[in-house]
Each structure stands twice: as C-alpha cells, then as structure tokens.
C-alpha cells in the first residue's frame, strides 16, 4: 500500500493546526513531543561551562586557574589551566582535575531525547501518509504504537531521574574546593562557576516529556481494539 498524502494540509500556512484538526487524537504527539524532545536533549548536550579558582602563593603571587567542562560531563578529564604544576614553586606535583564521571547518565538522557524525537518524526509521517492503514479493521499498528509510546514514557522516567541525580553531583563537584590545595603554602579561593540553569531546564523538560508521553499514550490507546468495542457479530440467517 502506498501512502495517501493530503496536499491540502501541505499547502496551508498553518500546517500544525491543520494536522491537529486532521488527526485530533494524535495532536500531543505531533506538536508537543516533537519540540519538547528537542528542548530536552539540546539543553543538556549543548552545555559548556567552567570552574574558576584564585590561587595565592604564600601571600605574594595571585593566579587564576579554570577548568572547562561540558557534555558528556566527564569531569575527571577537565584539567585546570594554566597547569598548577607551574604555580607556587611547583607545590602541585601533577595536574589537578575536577572529580567525577557522569557521562553515562548524560548520554543516556540525550539518547532518549534523540530517539523520542525521531520516533515522533516518523509517527508524524506515518499518521499523515498511512492513516488509512492505521485505522483499518484488524490493524495491529495502534497496538504497536501503544507499546512503543509506553516504552518511550518509561525511558523518559528512567533517563530523567538518572540525569537529575547526576546533575546534583555535577553541581556539587563544581562547588567543591580546589583539590589538593596545600594550605597554608597556597590559598585557593573559589572564583565562580558557570550558571547551570540550562541543565536544570533539561531535567524539567525530561519530566515534562514523561508527562506528555504518558498522557499521549491515552490518545493512542483510544485507537486500539482495547478501547474500541468489538463490532457485534453478524446475525445468522433464519432457517427456512
């Protein structure tokens, strides 16, 4: 079967409202899921920040060192620059890093966001081009759609929870004192950290996607035989 596209909706300048009126039951998936998935993984994957310290060596020399970090938040690879091995008369024997590796939670969160975005995009094309197959008698597509929608909602729950916990550790690591600061030979004062409001927004978008996918599953459920009553059987012909 070939897709049956309606050119009327493609010609309209208000394309999404037309989709919504054409497919009222799938409105949340077409509009909300598509955009909020992008917001979730973009705010997490696009973050770049730094931690800065002011180092005073024996009350004389003042230095500023910074460690830059970002997605996927392997903080243990973020080295303070300029190298602390050259400061305070070689007080530090080796380079100093931030502490922690939170890449697994961050990458999982972004992967779920990208996957849900692609699924929403594919569902949009499927609803628009193959709705006649989706709603035909005996079709298993609604049930498959319901299973995948429920699976994506569960993944958003796990990914958002894991990333929220990891973000708390990232904030704690960024606010921690400079590792191995040899007081009183050197005084290390926290100079500032890049605001992480965008990362907090990514967690909020993650849980918002959870709500949207869980709620949107209801609209998919209404298209399945589990919700629609089976048609009554044809009455048998009366005996002659």
Low-confidence stretches: 1-29
Report the β-strand fraction as a percent range: 5-15%
Strand count: 3
Rounded to an integer in angstroms, the radius of gyration calculated over CA atoms is: 27 Å
Whole-number count of domains:
1
The DSSP helix count reads 7
Strand order, largest beta sheet:
2-1-3
Choose one word for the global shape: rod-shaped
Main location: membrane
Protein name: MARVEL domain-containing protein
Membrane topology: Multi-pass membrane protein
Subcellular location: Membrane
Task: Tell me about this structure.
By secondary structure, the chain is mainly alpha-helical. The chain has one domain (7-221). Helices cover 51% and strands 12% of the residues. The chain has 7 helices and 3 strands. A 3-stranded antiparallel sheet has the order 2-1-3, with no helix packed on it. Residues 21-225 form the MARVEL domain. This is MARVEL domain-containing protein.
